[in-house]
Specification:
The complex is a heterodimer of chains A (about 350) and B (about 325). Chain A has a domain of about 230 residues. Helix content of chain A is about 75%, strand content about 5%. Chain A has a two-stranded antiparallel ribbon. Chain B has about 325 residues and is mainly α. Chain B has a single domain, classed as ABC transporter involved in vitamin B12 uptake, BtuC (Orthogonal Bundle), CATH 1.10.3470. The termini of chain B are far apart. Chains A and B meet through strand 1, helix 6, helix 11 and helix 13 of A and helix 3, helix 4, helix 11 and helix 13 of B.
Amino acid sequence: MLRIQKRTNMLLWQRWITRLAAIVLALVINAVIIFALTKLNPLKVYGSMFEGVFGTPLILWDTIRRVSMLLCIGVGLAPAFKMKFWNIGAEGQILVGGIAAAACMIYLGNLPNALLLVVMFVLAAAAGGLWGFVPAIAKARLNTNETLFTLMMNYIAIQLTSFFVTFWETPQGSGKVGIINPNTYKGWFPQLFGQRYMLNLIIALVLVVLVFLYLRYTKQGYEIAVVGESHNTAKYAGISVQAVTVRTVTISGAICGIAGFIAVAGQGHTISTSTAGGRGFIAIIVAWLAKFNTFFMILISLLIVFLEKGAEEIASNFNINNDLSKVLMGIILFFILGSEFFINYKLALSKAENA
Amino acid sequence: MEIIITLIKAAITFGTVIMYGSVGEILTEKSGNLNLGVPGTMYMGGIASLASAFFYERACESSGVAPSTALLILIPFLSAFLFAAFGGLIYSFLTITLRANQNVTGLTLTIFGAGLANFFGGSLNKLAGGVGQISVSQTSRAFSASLFSFLPLPDILMRTLFNYGFLVYLAIVVAVAAHFFLNKTNAGLNLRAVGENPATADAAGVNVTRHKYLATCIGTGISGLGGLFYTLDYIGGTWANDGRIETLGWLAVALVIFATWKPLRSLWSSYLFGLLYWVPQLSQNIKRRPQSLFMMLPYVVTILVLIFVSLRKKKENQPPESLGLAYFREER
């Protein structure tokens, strides 16, 4: 009989080899699918994906923009996930952050740009934090299921967004806010080093470093780890599980709110129900696969953006439907999720029980 | 009067989609599996039914045989159920056998299912040629044919309650059957034991793995019927990439909480959610501003239920104890 044993001794490089093997296997299966659908040489198709992701500086910066966005959200989720609090409400936290940022752009357009950006940053973080605080306090006080609560908060945020859109739409009745401050550029990210998306990248990378340090080297980060391992241990150690839960999830929501700020001020310059566009969900996968290590998130975000953008490229080049990207991505993610088993467990032949 | 009839019809139509989704998800969650892939499996059910109907109709057309009504119904029905259950199988294999995280796996299943369905839906539209819209009119007619047209009832009753295809009534049957299964049978009791405390169930000799697999696969299969109903009955056998199945799928997930994991409660509350889903869309009569606030209602109410249930701590209203957690016998 086969027996499953827990394994704790796998080295870092072995873990990554296992994951890499899963990705390669998934790519092979995807290649078969691509070939079956298009009769094109899969290697050529993968090659054209590469072009579509890194081909020219312009394309490259678009890739960077998307990676920064995904990274920022994933980093935001890390503290909550490390505490085993399933915050799947990033989508909503991004949106309310975006609403706050857009409101500032619309109503505070006469502030100096630097000051305006700071105000937007703070308010977006506050809004996202609030969106995390509500389910967190319910979890801490009443032990409500946070997965379901945060999921519902997403849809409230989506409707809240369309509610605000009706106030800000231009022209009236169009149902769209349109580009905000198209002439004054108030509340837009300034170009840095001649690049439009440099500030997006810088904010994301700063968050990567800060959250990494926060989780690994601060007292609060340690408390998060303890609460995540065992509520009882935390209690014995004198850590208030309630306080840590509320604080951590509020921080997590606030960072997702900052992602909403980036989405509005740093790329879209508008607000709509698709401002978050499902990133909040994909980032959950990023955070989980990176095992809450924010530096690994850079790699995983890059992989996902590569797949997404690459598949868009194949879709337009070979005239196939854009949704193919989700299928290919789903398959790869299934494989990576499955590969975790072989990292955490090993199969062993057990001796016959009645021997 | 007319508007009330429209509302009742909408409540029943969308309620049916939501009901399939939520009853299936209740079964799944009763085994302790929190499957966030409901929208994905509904999509998979929808596209499988459409594709199989399309190829069957085309095969009949090219061979000159008149399609039989039984097959027109049976083929898409089974395809929808089995393909959605296949989605459940992927989920089960990853979360039960390979012990992957349930939330992440479920969300991936939603991404995968939606992508798959919209990809093939778009391709089928292309394959069908013409104006670029696939249509399986014969199948759709078979599915939406009124089941009770022979009843000698007043016109108003007929139009509001008895003028639907069989899937509307089947949903009710499935919900009631799920209620009896969970509460009145041994297998149902075992399943609930698995969801509440798998270690205890295991010790009592219940095969935890098998119960989890079966409940999840059958549950997702039932959810898939929601996609089948939406695709072949409601929108009349075509593919619309409008994201509605996804919205309804998430509503189904919400409804499981609202119904506090009870199939019978999901029966009437599905219609309520169907109504809440549709009322705001009677757009011309209602201003858009209150409309978006109105559309928040199902979710706000669900959160209130969630809070209320945890406040009252009544045993029978709680989520299954082990919901969302994988079971490792070795770690008992």
